[in-house]
């Protein structure tokens, strides 16, 4: 055994009194143990973000739902949770709900964050996470998909305050002009 490899093996044996195999196993076990122990403690940064989340949740609870009336799809996007001071909104079948209470689901990093600030009608009917289904388009939905959608709508009506309705940009403009 020569070269660098031989030197390493020799050094391991000289300094640790262990065979290279035992040394590698010992190192591996140490790393695994270290990783496991790390997961048992909340890192300071994580703790800080938990505190931050608590503050945001408390703000959500204090804020009265603001009635927005008619909102365009473009305006709805502003309520996707990227600004923690704004409520989280989501639309189903053209009705806009304040889902701030469900920030854990719809806030940044939440499992359903992609629905925030969007009309999720088609996605919910199809139980789909495809961004293309983030639309109010109900064309071609089957009877059972419409049933699924109905269930979601009832859940939202029961759980979240309705704060507005979605309108097309041109409808909003024409109404303003009158
Ligand atoms: C592997 C499949 C899935 C599992 C295990 C799962 C699990 C869950 C659980 C445990 C909740 C929390 C329920 C509660 O505490 O009220 C939830 C909520 C929710 N799920 Fe799923 N889910 C799945 C797939 C989906 C899909 C495909 C969609 C739609 C595309 C969806 C949409 C939702 C929504 C919108 C909520 C929040 C409802 C609310 O605001 O209260 N889920 N899900």
UniProtKB/TrEMBL annotation:
Main localisation: membrane
A GO-annotated cellular component: endoplasmic reticulum
Keyword set, alphabetical order: Cell membrane, Endoplasmic reticulum, Heme, Iron, Lipid-binding, Membrane, Metal-binding, Steroid-binding, Transmembrane, Transmembrane helix
InterPro entries: Cyt_B5-like_heme/steroid-bd (IPR001199), Cyt_B5-like_heme/steroid_sf (IPR036400), MAPR/NEUFC/NENF-like (IPR050577)
Transmembrane segments: 23-44
GO MF term set: metal ion binding; steroid binding
Subcellular location: Cell membrane; Endoplasmic reticulum
Domain called Cytochrome b5 heme-binding: residue spans: 71-167
Family, similarity comment: Belongs to the cytochrome b5 family. MAPR subfamily.
Protein name as it appears in the record: Cytochrome b5 heme-binding domain-containing protein
Native source species: Chenopodium quinoa (Quinoa)
